[in-house]
Amino acid sequence: MCSRVKSIIHRWAIAISIVSIATSTLQARVAPPLPQDAAAAKQEAKDSAAGKRPITPEQRARAYAKLLEGQRYYVGARTGRLTIETLRQAQRAFEEALQLDPTLAEAHTALGELAFFFLDDVETAEREAQAALKIDKDSYGAARLLARVLVLKSGLRENKIDRPIAERAIDALREVVRLNPSDAEGWALLGEIYLALGRQTEAIDAFTHWAAAPPSLDTRFYQIVTGGRELSPDAAAARLGEVLLRAGRTSEAIAAIRRAIALEPSNRDYLALLSRALEAGGGGDAVLIAELQRIVESDPTNIAALDLLARSLAEAMRYDEAIKAYEKILQARGVGQNPVTNEEDKQLVSWILERIASLQRQAGQTNGVMATIERMRRLLGRNDPTADFHYALLLRDQGKRAEALQVLRTARLRNPDQPALIRLEATILGEMGRADEGAALLRARLKGKPEDDFIELLNIANVYLQAGRAKEAIEASRKALDLAPAAQAARNAARQNGRGDQDDDRTDLQTQALLMLSSAQEKAGDFKGSEESLRRILAKDPNNATALNNLGYFLVERGERLEEALEMIKRAVQAEPTNASFLDSLGWAYFKLGRLTEAEKYLSEAARRNPASATIQEHLGDVYHKLGKTDLARAAWRKALTLSIEAAETARIRAKLDGSGGKN
């Protein structure tokens, strides 16, 4: 049996409070040879099963007694009182029950569960479940066991679906929900399998039934095979909404997501999903902001809703209102002018002030940023690195990279191992043409811990990519890609145990590595390799908006398959209508197609949503130039020049400003 499947079952056994026992020891000791009288009884049972000898009432009574005895041992094991001896006794009791009465489906099911939960033996579990169902096709326990075995073997958890096994899993799950139409796990797993097979309509039907089912007490198996998803009623409504949104059934999606939020108003993922749904519905910023304001009015302490409200206001360029939304959180926690001493409050204050400083930087409010930095020092203490980090960001925005570097190095004397300071220093070194120095800082943080090393390798790749060092960026990206499975397993385990960071990027780590690799390959001129990397993402997730956008944009940049590129970018924008990068790609595609009115519309919107992008400003200037709006073109190019950090990009923009035209 695959070691990966073994590890999944082992973690599940631990999750239900079972002590760890070596499988080989159990298998050696649990099933000793049957004594001679038991062997004789087994032969009698075979004869009875073959119709040679009827089962006597006495045999049946003794069989039930053995079944109950085994269940007592088994219940003890499932509640954490497991020893090798009790497990052996449970297994022997069930075997003896079957020797006395081979028609006891419950005994086959119990033996299958022992094999599944405690012996990491899915083949025996499957065989026993099938034996039970052959005796009693309406055995709910056996049907559920068989379904779980097949779901585990289908590759659902690894996103590597084995279609024949997945089809068998569907049949088994349909039996589970036939026998118990209120089985939340059955409907949820059915939906996940359908979704993995691309059968979206059937997935929606299954998730609709799940959302209507009562809560399940046994949630761990679903969590494990789905990488940490919850089986709760709110999760059901949210998952339904997510899939409805993907299917373009926006109004139904919004209704489902609202039900999820009504059950869990502070869930960040649900609020973000609502944001996407409202945007897809064409309501724009105003509709989303109004919805979030209603949520906040009903619960002014809902930090997740306040945060999303502030972000939405910022995207609408209503920066002062966004800052006020964050200030309300501080007021609700009683934060004033005095230093914060409670560690939990410190974390919250640091997070909020960082958000405020970022908004002020976006709005170009330099004085406001400086005031917030001083506020950080006053509330968090002079030794806290948050203020220095944001001061360095401000200096970098102003083009004062050498000064920013000095601020960071001084701060690192007090906080030598602070990751944010190190990563920003590495980034700035790369921007100053000192990429090897920046990469060396990050390499020093590689400690052999998969998830942490994965992050640093992506940062190394990015430093080299921004410096135009595509070969080194590819090398670091490939190393990150190799680490992705182990890093993903560590991240999933942390989330399942409640240790995950709420602000973590929820994107699959292999996808993150492939996105970085494809960008590096594109920069290196390996267009075929870049497209293959993105196609790997789309093979697993055909609706991945970033992969669709990037592939479309790369094709547009090369002037290849422009209509195909346009359709991919449109799909990305449909998924994330306020993403400035996607809007830029769409505008640039229209520009390349000569559709200047559409190009101006989307590039203007991209620039409104992200005024700090040199690429967007350059593209907008190019459109204005083509439209004969010379003054607007030069203004956009000048702004792009102040934002540019790449030498080639800077030279190209200067050429346009000097009147030489440049390459579009």
From TrEMBL:
<dbReference type="Pfam" id="PF13181">
    <property type="entry name" value="TPR_8"/>
</dbReference>
<feature type="signal peptide">
    <location>
        <begin position="1"/>
        <end position="28"/>
    </location>
</feature>
<feature type="repeat" description="TPR">
    <location>
        <begin position="614"/>
        <end position="647"/>
    </location>
</feature>
<feature type="repeat" description="TPR">
    <location>
        <begin position="580"/>
        <end position="613"/>
    </location>
</feature>
<feature type="region of interest" description="Disordered">
    <location>
        <begin position="37"/>
        <end position="56"/>
    </location>
</feature>
<feature type="repeat" description="TPR">
    <location>
        <begin position="184"/>
        <end position="217"/>
    </location>
</feature>
<feature type="repeat" description="TPR">
    <location>
        <begin position="454"/>
        <end position="487"/>
    </location>
</feature>
<dbReference type="InterPro" id="IPR051012">
    <property type="entry name" value="CellSynth/LPSAsmb/PSIAsmb"/>
</dbReference>
<dbReference type="Pfam" id="PF13432">
    <property type="entry name" value="TPR_16"/>
</dbReference>
<keyword id="KW-0677">Repeat</keyword>
<keyword id="KW-0802">TPR repeat</keyword>
<dbReference type="Pfam" id="PF13429">
    <property type="entry name" value="TPR_15"/>
</dbReference>
<dbReference type="InterPro" id="IPR011990">
    <property type="entry name" value="TPR-like_helical_dom_sf"/>
</dbReference>
<keyword id="KW-0732">Signal</keyword>
<dbReference type="InterPro" id="IPR019734">
    <property type="entry name" value="TPR_rpt"/>
</dbReference>
<protein>
    <submittedName>
        <fullName>Tetratricopeptide repeat</fullName>
    </submittedName>
</protein>
<feature type="repeat" description="TPR">
    <location>
        <begin position="234"/>
        <end position="267"/>
    </location>
</feature>
